[in-house]
Amino acid sequence: MKSRTTVFAVCLILALIPLFLFLLSGNALADTLSDAIQKAITDGQIDAGAKPGYLGIPGGPDVSYLIGFLWAIWVGWIFSSVGAFGGIMAGVGHITIFGLGDYAKSFGKGDLLNKAITDSIRVSNQWLVGLSAFISSLNYYRMGRLVLPLGVCLAIGSILGSYLIPLLTAGKINLSDYLGYFGVVVFIIGGFLFYETTPRGQARKKEAKAAATAFEKSIKEKGEGRQPPEGVKVGDWGVSKIRFSFYGVEFSFSPIVPVIGGFFIAGLASFLGIGGGFLFVPFLTSIAGLPMFLVAGTSALTVLIGMIVSIFTYMVTQEVIVHWGLIGVELIGIFIGSMIGPRTSKYIPDIWLKRLFVLLALYVGIRYTSKGFFGQSWLPPF
User: Model confidence over 216-227: pLDDT tens digits?
Assistant: First the structure.
């Protein structure tokens, strides 16, 4: 019990750091946005007398708090269930449902408001997935479905990537470029995980399949208690090899591999303005060879650390601003969805969790690749 309390306290402190630092730099953020708005008024792009909308921009889109709340429940559920697509689904909401993508593009490539809104979307996505990752990590740790040493190794590598990319790209990415890259990466990753649902792909993951089968059998026979005795059990720790078991099946990995993987994954995720779970999931299934029942919690822990670093870098060092009213309502929805996900995912077979991931990857990849590079979505909403 003492160790669980310590983990909870540490995660809570880490989760509050970005908000505390943001409050210290609020005036600078407001001044940055104000300058961008004033330039747009001077250039005749917006009417100074129009009703303030998103981020207080005159004539900006009105955002529905109710829709934001309901969508955030879905975002929290999907991320906490498969360990991925929280940031991507948050992006679908901010970019498409609220129309912020088209609004940013209306100012033209290279415009200050285009870049400000694009960066705002990226950070808003990360606030949502960050909270979901925090809640999911605690839930999966309590359930014995989080590989703590693997998550820590990934997090170590992700810290540098999450810090470096915002410094290099904030204020330099246009919405059309962002959408295209967003879609291409998701589409490719979905293909890798689809392969793992085929008989040939499954045959290569004998340990993961055995552990998933044992876990599913346990759920059917007796259900999952608050701390299942067959959960993750960490064995030997070392600089060359770390061993652990899950439901009697042994796993091992070299710490250097997830450290390197965490760096590249977090860097790309930070560039896209998402959590990175859609990259961590294939890494954990393909490289680490884990069953999906362990992937969501381990991915969530890694994503949490990356989000803390990335949000801090965007908002404090790069002065990116978000719509706090919308974010506040969405975080409530995220909390609800993230509490439901870990409690329902145990009843979904391992292979179907992967297929759910693939289905979402296919939709998101096609839609945003076509919209970003061809100017028109090939899938609804158009």
Answer: 888 776 654 444
Q: Domain extents for the chain?
A: 2-374
Residues contacting residue 112 through CB under 8 Å, at least 6 positions apart = 35, 36, 39, 40
Q: Describe the crossing of helices 175-195 and 112-142 by its angle, rounded to 10 degrees.
A: 30
DSSP 62: P
Q: Which tokens is 347 given? A: 């009843």
Q: List, for the chain, all residue ranges whose pLDDT scores fall below the cut of 50.
A: 1-4, 6-8, 10-11, 13-15, 17-18, 21-22, 24-28, 224-228
Q: Tens of pLDDT along 182-202?
A: 788 777 878 877 877 787 777
Question: pLDDT tens digit string along 158-177?
Answer: 888 877 777 777 666 666 66
| Integer Cα distance of 18 and 313 in angstroms | 9
**In the 3-class helix/strand/coil scheme, how is 218-263 assigned residue by residue?**
HHHHHCCCCCCCCCCEECCCCCCCEEEEECCEEEEECCHHHHHHHH
How many CB atoms sit inside 10 A of residue 26's CB? Answer: 12
- CA torsion angle for 30, 34, 37, 39 (degrees, to 10)? -140
Residue owning tokens 């701390």: 227
Q: Phi/psi of residue 118, each to 5°?
A: -60, -45
The answer to whether residues 270 and 318 touch, using CB atoms and an 8 Å cutoff, is no
pLDDT for 170 = 66
Q: What's the pTM?
A: 0.78
In the chain, where does DSSP find H-type helix?
Answer: 2-24, 26-42, 65-82, 86-91, 100-105, 112-142, 148-169, 175-195, 199-203, 206-222, 256-272, 277-282, 292-312, 324-345, 350-374
C-alpha–C-alpha distance, residues 312 and 163, integer Å: 8
Q: Phi-psi region for residue 198, left (φ > 0), alpha (ψ -120 to 50) or beta?
A: beta
